[in-house]
Amino acid sequence: MSTDPRNATDTVVVGRIGRPHGVRGEVTIEVRTDDPDLRFAPGAVLLTEPAARGPLTVVGRRWHREVLLLQFEGSGSREDAEELRNTELHVPVADLPALEDPDVFYDHQLVGLAARLPDGAPLGEIVAVRHEGAELLVVRRGEGGELLVPFVAAIVPTVDLAGGFVVVDPPEGLLDL
């Protein structure tokens, strides 16, 4: 594994900077982590994409209704905040805590796995995980289309990280969508 902090295989996205909030350099954050209080604690250093905008050090954090607002070191004005808009915030994979539940996975562990049917027939490759009320695996099929597969044990009974695949046991009609 490469140690280049900008290498996508070594980092995971934990957020994306949105619009400025107010005039003192705060920005809204599209949260993409289960633990925003840990990931965005004051003093946290976040890698960025594009890399030239970072790394960024969190100096202020607060919730405004349901929106997380952050302020970064060196960002003291609305103009400074505007320059950070649409920047992805990353942390090194090595900094993620180990998962205690063997049936729980980080998104980056699933992306890139082959999806197979129970008989071993190839279904495609997992290219993303969506969190839209339920977790959905985005499987790119050979002919270029995509399939959304609910990530539940009844439909995805096997996840073999070492083997590089998941087994998808689709209910009737899922593959026809």
From TrEMBL:
UniProt keywords (A-Z) are:
Chaperone, Cytoplasm, Ribosome biogenesis, rRNA processing
Q: Which residues form a coiled coil?
A: none
An example Pfam family from this entry, by short name, is RimM
A GO molecular function assigned to this protein is: ribosome binding
The record places domain Ribosome maturation factor RimM PRC barrel at: 108-174
Source domain of life is Bacteria
Q: Does the keyword Secreted apply?
A: no
Q: Which InterPro entries match?
A: PRC_barrel-like_sf (IPR011033), PRC_RimM (IPR056792), RimM (IPR011961), RimM_N (IPR002676), RimM_N_sf (IPR036976), Transl_B-barrel_sf (IPR009000)
Q: Where in the cell is it found?
A: Cytoplasm
GO cellular component, as recorded: cytoplasm; ribosome
**Domain comment as written in the entry:** The PRC barrel domain binds ribosomal protein uS19.
Q: Which NCBIfam families match?
A: 16S_RimM
Task: Give the family this protein belongs to, as stated in its UniProt record.
Answer: Belongs to the RimM family.
Subunit text: Binds ribosomal protein uS19.
Question: Per its database record, what is this protein's job?
Answer: An accessory protein needed during the final step in the assembly of 30S ribosomal subunit, possibly for assembly of the head region. Essential for efficient processing of 16S rRNA. May be needed both before and after RbfA during the maturation of 16S rRNA. It has affinity for free ribosomal 30S subunits but not for 70S ribosomes.
Protein name in UniProt: Ribosome maturation factor RimM
**What is the organism field in this record?**
Geodermatophilus ruber
What's the source species' lineage? Bacteria, Bacillati, Actinomycetota, Actinomycetes, Geodermatophilales
Q: Which gene encodes it?
A: rimM
